[in-house]
Specification:
2 copies of one chain form a homodimer. Chain A is mostly helical and about 210 residues long. Chain A contains 9 helices and no strands. Chain A binds a DNA duplex (26 and 26 nucleotides) through helix 1 and helix 3.
Amino acid sequence: MYMEQEVRDSTQRVLDVAETLFMDRGYNAITLRDIADELGIKQASLYYHFPGGKEQLFMAMAERMFDRHRQGIMAALEAGKGDLRAQLREVAEWFSSQRPVKFMGMMHADLAALNPEHKEQLARKAHAAMFRPLRDAFVAAQVRGEIRPMHPDLLAGSFLWLMDGLNYGETRSGAPPRQVMAEELISLLLDGLLPRQAEPAVAPATRG
Amino acid sequence: MYMEQEVRDSTQRVLDVAETLFMDRGYNAITLRDIADELGIKQASLYYHFPGGKEQLFMAMAERMFDRHRQGIMAALEAGKGDLRAQLREVAEWFSSQRPVKFMGMMHADLAALNPEHKEQLARKAHAAMFRPLRDAFVAAQVRGEIRPMHPDLLAGSFLWLMDGLNYGETRSGAPPRQVMAEELISLLLDGLLPRQAEPAVAPATRG
DNA sequence: ATTATCTATAGATCTATAGATAATGC
DNA sequence: ATTATCTATAGATCTATAGATAATGC
């Protein structure tokens, strides 16, 4: 098992660097040379780890990333179970603990550069890892009556999209910290923008 | 003035194609050959219109696009003046009338490929064209008391970001039409997700 | 023997430049 | 003369392949 450990380590290091660079500047902007330089090795050496070249490296990086997020998101949803606001806070905290995802920037341009099978495969994985668990959480909250009925796909997409958005914009000097912005976004989603009336102790069961 | 008209026409055609391709797949994914092929001309001919090459072409395309959106967004805000929900609907309608912006996908990877001056210039223009008018509208709505106090930058960013998001995702077969999704997003922002109590005829002026 | 790297290089693009050509309108 | 295109090509990358080399652990 020593050998295998060894392999994992150096290959994981390649994936780490690939993830940083690809997520930051996109598939097309990053060359194998960029990745090799960052690792302090030669470009051709990457083919030892990924004989399929750039596309295989990208796929491996993306799949590892989605697996990690699937795990993190599901743990977050479990931790806040029964209370949507708590769940969303846990998910936001998970994201802020991670390298910025730039999930949508990736879905934008990067997927288009892959061959159709790989593209399909990654889109499916992204859906299962990030989208579906969140959508299920929104559906459950609707079943509990915690939130009003609304297209759960739209809700999951909006939440993910907004969380992802926090990772762009280079964090200007004047901007509040990410933690605060995430909390405000959750409040925006749940409470909305219109001023609230004083909350009654018990919600009336009225409906037109 | 005939000549100038002539020049505008063929150059505008180049910009039209450049906008479609660049916005769809990103700066790095699109080559000058792609653009020339789409136009039915040779790659070298593009240098007649843009001697500065690819980067100059991208800048001209982006600036034209932002000028157009500045105009459209300000007209939309004016049309719905005094009522934030009406304003947001008008802006959403404006966006749906336009080629998908993929504004954020662009800010993600594309800007990084430009030289620092161009990058700065474009970021500034994007801010003035799209962000600032919307932020001002949110501030005005807060002053009117139409919405609760909240960081207006975050609101403007979230709204733009969500509108932009509608342009990704390839519009699956099962998904509701963009028009409906935009309306739902506006309702999400303004009304929030929590179930509303029956609305009183007059809002109480209470505050802890 | 296996792991992880290297050098060298072929082949494919891509951007950009130089200079020629055809059509149009004075 | 101006406008808009073309051909040809230099120079710079980039991906990927072939085969050599050094270190480690049996």
